[in-house]
Write a structure and sequence with these properties.
By secondary structure, this protein is mostly beta strands. It is built from no helices and 11 strands. Strands 2, 4, 5, 6, 9, 10 and 11 form a 7-stranded mixed sheet that branches. It has a 4-stranded antiparallel sheet with strand order 1-3-8-7, with no helix packed on it. A hairpin with a 5-residue loop joins β5 and β6.
């Protein structure tokens, strides 16, 4: 069983920045792609960004140029740097571990964290 714990969320004004972290348990972190998803009230969970085991990335169009994902395998941690935040970025952000490679579909991720709230005020 893999546990994922997110941190770093909070309240920020539009145009501001936040850095989310996701710490994973276990010894197989470096074997799998990781992803960040978000879910706003009343909306479905949506893909934000993914990173492969070797660092290749794939971003949703809505966050390209503003968000940046990275990982430090030695620390079992994946990060999400969020800049130029907009009110529409407000959501609970979840990290997840994929079943294998880089992916953007919910059903391609098998382990999920509880999420961290990000609120962007206008």
């Amino acid at each position: 069983q893999v546990q994922l714990v997110e941190s770093g969320g909070g309240l920020v004004q539009a145009g501001g920045s936040l850095r989310l972290s996701c710490a994973a348990s276990g010894r197989t972190f470096s074997w799998y792609a990781m992803g960040w998803f978000r879910q706003a009230p009343g909306k479905e969970r949506e893909f934000v960004v993914g990173i492969s085991r070797n660092g290749s990335t794939y971003y949703a169009d809505s966050v390209k140029g503003r968000f940046s994902i990275s990982r430090v395998n030695a620390k079992n941690t994946v990060y999400l740097q969020m800049n130029s935040l907009k009110p529409e970025d407000t959501a609970v952000y979840h990290c997840a571990r994929s079943t294998g490679g880089l992916a953007d579909k919910l059903d391609e991720y098998v382990y999920w964290g509880q999420g961290t709230q990000v609120t962007v005020s206008s």
